[in-house]
Known about the structure:
47% of the residues lie in helices and 8% in strands. By secondary structure, the protein is an alpha+beta fold. Strand 4 and strand 5 (361-370) form a beta hairpin. It is globular.
Amino acid sequence: MSHSDGLMWGGSALRYFLYRNSTAFSTDKTEYEKFVDSILEFSLVKGIVFNPRIDHITIQRLKEAAKEKFKYDFISSFLVTSAYGSTSDQEFFAESFNKYISSNENQKNVVWYLLDHFFTKTFVELKNSPKINAELDTKDEWQEVKKIIENDSSKIKDLEYKLKPETTWTPSNDLDFEYSPASQNNYGFLNPWYAQESISAIGSNIYTNNLFKKFNYSNFVTRQPKMKEKFQQYMRYTRHKPKKPVLEKQNLYKDINHLDSVWKEKSRFNLGSASAIEIKKNLDFVSSFFEHRIANFKKDLYDNTVKLFNILELMTQNRLDRIFINLILTSDNEIVDGNGKSLGKGVNGITFTSIDLKNRSTTFSYVVIRISSFIPKINQDQYNKSWFSSNNKFQTLNHEFGHVVDGFLSKSKELIDQPFNSSFYASHQQKDLYKGSHPSSEVLVWKNTIKRILYIVAAAVIIIIFTIIIFKSRSKKQNSQD
């Protein structure tokens, strides 16, 4: 029932940031908290028996902490509409990053502007704070996160998300979210299915041990008809577009060739004759499947990737190479794990993040994407249902790199200062990282035997486990809705 603990805590910070920059925190706080109370009263199991060994004061603090967390998570799921993002803080972070990167000019509403500020400014402040460790595991560290966000919020008061817009306010005519006609007025919490799935996921994550019943939207609004209006009212401001210019950002990479050459150079091994990271080669592999069917596919993929990597470098202050070690694109029907076993038909992309248990820190991340994830119709259909936050055909790619920078936030300062060397890349080629098919399947032999032995011995000293964050195209629950 804590706000946030452990590694990969970016989603908890982002949820608080969105809450803090909405009127749920300020002018509409009393009304919003009554709304939250009504949902919790409806959904929490009655007659909960706590451990008698826990004193009353501790129990009360646990209850208050859980309610606070629910407040942050609930309102943030109005702003970033993704049922998949509601399944965990990590997926919320990745789906928010996806929305930020994937949105075109006509989709940039007030939420996009808030995300722009968080990812390019607040994120950097959080990472640079000497009072926040890689693993957010103390109350003092969480208070420091909140303090940074609160100080930062004073700079963007003009972007505050309004739960009850002024009567003179009208939706912007400059916005087009590109939902299908049937979904134009049925996205996010305007859709009963989304309300039911999101609230159920948020509640069950916070109130563990089956304390939170599956939220039944129909029963809830039948008992409290006025609450249906609240769901609709709180969604209105998603149609707001601020009259505020977006400052042009300084880009590190000029084009795809420049990006590709930089990463080839970073990942050289085998006495400099080979590179572990082959970004352009992978993108060209994907394009060969689509460029004859989808106009400008290769150019769009190049442009998206350059834009993506420029933002990633901005967020990491040009230290993306301290966390990201490869992008692998596969034509496999099903992505496989390290043992070659299928992860299931619903998995379109996956981010593997290694964790150093001794130092309680992430160490590196790599991304595997299935090329079928780039099919436009599949992305549009899932977007129409508010499962994903974007209809961009490259949204799986963008989502997965959200996990990468979330991992960067949880990498200790000591480990960040230790760059990966040629011996590391020699043993972390695509063939080593992914057991399925990919464009760089050829075996590249490491020639410097002495260095290799030294590397293996050194690596054996560090205990590393893999945590797997899986991006699914749809869940079983959603399939039943089709």
